[in-house]
Amino acid sequence: MISGAPASGKGTQCEMIVQKFGLVHISTGDLLRSEVAAGSEIGNQAKEYMNSGRLVPDEVVTTMVIGRLSRDDAKEKGWLLDGFPRSFAQAQSLEKMKIPDIFIALDVPDEILIDRCVGRRLDPETGKIYHIKNFPPETEEVKARLITRADDTEEKAYIHYLYRMTR
Questions:
Q1: Domain layout of the chain by residue ranges
Q2: Contacts of 11 (CB under 8 A, 6+ apart)
Q3: Is 161's pLDDT higher than 70?
Q4: pTM (predicted TM-score)
């Protein structure tokens, strides 16, 4: 399992770990976006929370993760959880399932997280993530189609920053 704040580098580290060990990368963010895009019942539940800027409840996220862990590829190859668990209740759900508890936590200063978050861009055709300064796209064609994900705005980054400051 790998954890860290948004834009801490979880996806980058996961890519390298998955490539080296042949694991299935299971990202809660990707699962949520996929279920919402598919218009599934659980995706529609999640969408209501996401659109209003609220956290998706633990039960919804846990159901998605457990469903993904039960697929054949994850059972056969092994898996790397990205961004889960994020709460005590989610951790308890893993404990009940007797999930191994090897855990990597990425700790990145808040100022860097904010810069990474607001500079991040998504290629909607390939799903590849870029950064306008640190990892720009290879071509002008790719650059022209990049979008900012709804959760990568300066406002959301500062909200996360303030949340971390109050813990």
A1: 1-107, 109-167
A2: 27, 82, 129
A3: no
A4: 0.71
